[in-house]
Amino acid sequence: MNTILQFMKKNYKLLLVVTFVSLSLLAFKSNFSSSSDPEKDKLLIELLTFVLEKGHYSPATMDDEFSKGVYKDYIEALDPSKRFFLQADIDEFSKYELELDDQLLNKDLTFFDLTYTRLIQRIEESKSIYKSILNQPFDYTIDESFNTDYEKMPYAKNTSELKERWRKQIKLSTLSSLVDRQEIQDSNGVIDKDLKAVAAPLDEESDFQDAAETENKKEVAVTKDKKKSFDELEKETRESSLKSLDEYFGFIKDLTRKDYFSVYLNSVTSKFDPHTNYLAPEDKERFDVSMSGKLEGIGARLQKKNDYTEISELISGGPAWRGKQLEAGDIVIKVGQGNQEPIDVVGMRLDDVVKKIKGTKGTEVRLTVKKVDGTIKVISIIRDIVEIEETYAKSSIVEKNGTKYGVIYLPKFYIDFEDRDGRDAGKDIALEVARLKKENVSGIVLDVRDDGGGSLSTVVDIAGLFIEEGPIVQIKSAGKRKEVLYDRDKKIEWDGPLVIMVNSFSASASEILAAAIQDYKRGIIIGSKQTYGKGTVQNVIDLNQFVRSSSVGDLGALKTTTQKFYRINGGSTQLEGVSSDIVMPDRYSYLKMGERDMKNAMPWDKIDPASYSTWVNNKNFNQVIMNSKNRIAKNAQFQLVEDNAKWIDSRSEDYVYSLNIDKFKLAQKQIEERAKMYKPLKNYSNKLKFNSLPYEIEIMAKDNSLKEKRQRWHESLSKDIYVEEALNVLDDLQGKPIVKKPMNAKLKDGKLVKS
Questions:
Q1: How far is CA 41 from the centre of its chain?
Q2: Catalytic positions, please?
């Protein structure tokens, strides 16, 4: 989940205290060589443990229990599928299970060095294992199975047992792909991908298997005239799996010691709470980009394909997109800075290639690329500010029952801390509201589903658009009095009907907004039973500020929890989230994926409420909620969603898969048959037409990429039953009668049937 990160200035006193005390400990001129990773690691441990102790909202006690937790999380992170370490390795590692707290305090790297060295050794040994397994056909007539419950799975006792685990794991992957290939061939190339996705084994968290499945489906190309034999298809699946595993191990090869050390450090920080973590320099840069929605570069997304770096997408409006020379699919061979000699990047780590291509606005980069047609071309691009359009708010207009409404989607509460004049969610939502008012909409739906949060200051700005003035959120630091953040602008940008859409992935800043609107009774919250439940505030602390004249290079940053926020009614959103006024069934209702299901989550509590007055222009508020609940209860589509959610929950416990092809096919067939019941969910249409606002239509006339993105968004809205019900609620809030269409279907025995 994205975190709330804000008010660096308001919390600067805290940072100054940490800085002052830490400088008394670390005010020295570092003579460490930048290539001396162990010395840099020790410095990082010293900095992290100290800043966490002094700066965290509720510091964890570093004792034996703490040590056990770090040990468990770290080993699981290194080998989640238990396909590298042997039980003998774990027995050796376990000697340090209760010593990690002491090692951290003493900057002792013994445990890390041991596990890192052993992991690299086991990874290297595994290469020969998977290559040997895929070198010969599988016998799918044998009656055997594989259990994918890795958490309960013991470690392999010896190399023979480990090889057997690899064999079954790979066999499951190839069996699934083989059955797909057979089914596609038998159906002359026509297959329901949605049903196959649902029926696929739930072992897909395995990196290589997921890649293999994707690759296999790409390669299947059959016709009526050319049928392949079982042996040919079986061989294809092994070759495809080998290719995917080679790519997977190529990715692992790119990981360095510092990448694994970051894993170790984050096993430490996560014991304080789930949202406190170490950001290596590259991660810090990505975090900044995600918060601001912009970067300096050429505006191209890259991906690694074996030893090559490929352009996967051009960002609309960026310099590469404007230049019209670089294309998706181009392979980057060399990168040159201006007139300097270009550097060969074939075989280079993706992160390192990205660093060479990105750069300051106004500077030139020259890319030597191999085009899709095989030609070699040198392309000059002047770097610029690139805005990532998907980060920003967008709006649409829809007409329903003769009334015009606006829908605003906010993917995150973005802000650029370095540029006050830059875009932020508060300013952009205000602009979208103004644009919708100009189009004379009668109600607004603000959609923050899947919005993981962001800047707290933008929440205050956005909530203030819908109320006259008053408190929006309360904040409390450890051992300090609470602080109340107010909207002090008496102007109301929108006083009409308002609906806030949330789901179980709406977190942090999204929850503050929903809570404020709910407490004021200013609008109706509609969505999942409750939101994610993240009620904590994080600050990002640059670790480089604590060391003078350091030659170890960039130390990265620590994102740590410094505060908790509370609703204006005094309650915390921590763990409990925000309960919707109108609960709509969703596919993930029963799965454990909220803050309350995370290890080391901070507890719920409450403080005194702030002083505020509720909105008075909502006389039919309770009736509107009742109307919606009645519609949802009678709606066959929502009943089907609820049934689907229960089925998904039951399937989450399915871990055992037969590796016998006949039994596997039978089990998958049963799953597919059940999945067919839920096809109407994907095929649903609310019969509403969504359109862009006039200003955007003008832009889309010159920008086909933006046009395609908006068309996809509008298409998804036209299939969204949740948006449809939100618009029904807007109708009710105005007191106008809803034109009710007769139900032509109902749910019977778990199936939609015509009535």
A1: 28
A2: 508, 519, 534
Q: Does 234 have pLDDT greater than 90?
A: yes
Q: At which residue do the structure tokens 């067919």 appear? A: 676
Tell whether the model's pLDDT for residue 184 goes beyond 90: no
Quote the CA–CA distance of 3 and 279 in Å, as a whole number: 13
- Is the pLDDT at 508 greater than 90? The verdict is yes
Give one DSSP letter per residue of 335-394, joined into a string.
EEETTSPPEE-TT--HHHHHHHH---TT-EEEEEEE-TTS-EEEEEEE-EEEE-GGGS-E
Mean pLDDT of 692-702: 93
Q: How do strand 536-542 and strand 364-370 relate by DSSP bridges?
A: unpaired
Tokens, residue 287: 């975090």
What is the pTM for the complete model shown? Answer: 0.85
Whole-number pLDDT of residue 719: 95
Give CA–CA dist 201/180, Å, rounded.
12
Give the Cα separation of 212 and 204 in Å (integer): 10
* Consecutive H or E run containing 190: none
Q: What is the 3-state secondary structure (H, E, C) of 109-174?
A: CHHHHHHHHHHHHHHHHHHHHHHHHCCCCCCCCCCCEEECCCCCCCCECCHHHHHHHHHHHHHHHH
Residue carrying structure tokens 């006792």: 157
Pairing of strands 444-447, 403-409: parallel
pLDDT of residue 550: 63
Cα separation of 532 and 535, whole Å? 9
| Residue 210 burial class via C-beta count within 10 angstroms: exposed 0-12, middle 13-18, buried 19 and up | middle
Q: Tokens for 714, please give them.
A: 């509008």
Q: What local confidence, expressed as pLDDT, does residue 183 receive?
A: 86
How many Cβ atoms from other residues are within 10 Å of residue 465's Cβ? 22
As a whole number of angstroms, the distance between CA 180 and CA 634 comes to 38
Q: Residue 302 CB: number of other CB atoms within 10 A?
A: 15
Looking at the predicted structure, is the pLDDT value of residue 222 above 50?
no
Once rounded to an integer, what is the mean pLDDT over residues 538-557?
Answer: 86
Residue labelled with tokens 């799965």: 591
Q: How far apart are CA 314 and CA 292, in angstroms?
A: 19
Instruction: For residue 480, give both structure tokens.
Output: 């300090």
Confidence of residue 303 (pLDDT cuts 50, 70, 90): confident
- 620 versus 463: the higher-pLDDT residue is 463
What is the tens place of the pLDDT at every residue in 247-288?
A: 889 889 889 999 999 999 999 999 999 999 999 998 988 888
Rounded Cα distance between 557 and 286, Å, is 12
Of the listed ranges 8-17, 68-77, 376-385, 704-713, the least confidently predicted one is: 8-17
Tokens matching residue 384: 């610029």
| Cα–Cα distance measured from residue 734 to residue 556, given in angstroms and rounded to the nearest whole number | 52
Alpha helices in 27-86 (DSSP H): 37-55, 64-78
Please, are residues 728 and 631 in contact by the beta-carbon 8 Å criterion?
Answer: yes
Residue 378: both structure tokens together: 């040198």
Alpha-carbon gap, residue 607 to 496, rounded angstroms = 31
pLDDT of residue 745: 44
CA pair distance 560, 51, nearest whole angstrom: 9
User: Distance between CA 145 and CA 153 in Å, rounded?
Assistant: 14
Q: Please state, in angstroms and rounded to a whole number, the distance separating the CA atoms of residues 181 and 168.
A: 20
- Lowest mean pLDDT segment, chosen from 75-79, 205-209, 222-226, 558-562: 205-209
Side-chain-side CA neighbours of 392 within 13 Å: the count stands at 21
Tokens of 439: 């189009």
